[in-house]
Structure to design on (197 residues):
């Protein structure tokens, strides 16, 4: 699965990008500042949107995905360094980042609770933590449909949990949610948080 998925990732994302996802990415990324950590950078879809930041350290556990991000790094307006690492075990010191960005990635993280703890650890007090994630839809019928589809979806799309309650996970984490915007009947959420440790 790990070998073929990076090859089809950009094609798989095209339908999502057609429904304004790139605009939503840009809107959330413009709220980042200072030294930025990006969780699960994939093929670098966010990289061209970084402007008013010092630098981006991006983590991506799949080296094949990272290799595909080279053209996006070339389009970036800021320095970007990719680290081969998992969100549950970040290779950075405590209280290091001013902002953290995660877009369409928390669905695939095996231990999202641990990843949220690590994000809190490496971000400074008062750091902004910004998410754009698809989640289990609040409508009963649509949510149940996601539950039914998820086992096959997860095997096909690199571990993606189509029905993950990422907002619920963040609510139970040490981060404080400051704003939530919902799109497409609750399928996509833009979630702004602060690390108020």
């Amino acid at each position: 699965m790990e070998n073929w998925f990076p090859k089809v990732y950009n094609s798989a994302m095209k339908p999502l990008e057609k429904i304004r996802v790139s605009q939503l990415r840009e809107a959330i990324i413009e709220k980042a500042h200072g030294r930025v950590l990006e969780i699960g950078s994939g093929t670098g879809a966010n990289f061209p949107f970084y402007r008013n930041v010092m630098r981006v350290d991006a983590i991506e556990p799949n080296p094949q995905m990272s290799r595909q991000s080279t053209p996006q790094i070339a389009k970036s307006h800021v320095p970007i360094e990719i680290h081969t690492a998992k969100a549950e075990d970040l290779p950075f010191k405590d209280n290091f980042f001013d902002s953290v960005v995660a877009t369409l990635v928390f669905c695939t993280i095996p231990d999202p609770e641990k990843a949220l703890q690590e994000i809190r650890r490496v971000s400074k007090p008062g750091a902004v933590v910004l998410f754009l994630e698809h989640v289990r839809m609040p409508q009963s019928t649509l949510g149940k449909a996601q539950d039914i589809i998820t086992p096959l979806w997860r095997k096909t799309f690199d571990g993606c949990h189509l029905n993950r309650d990422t907002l619920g996970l963040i609510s139970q984490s040490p981060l404080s949610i400051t704003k939530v915007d919902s799109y497409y009947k609750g399928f996509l959420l833009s979630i702004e948080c602060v690390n108020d440790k």
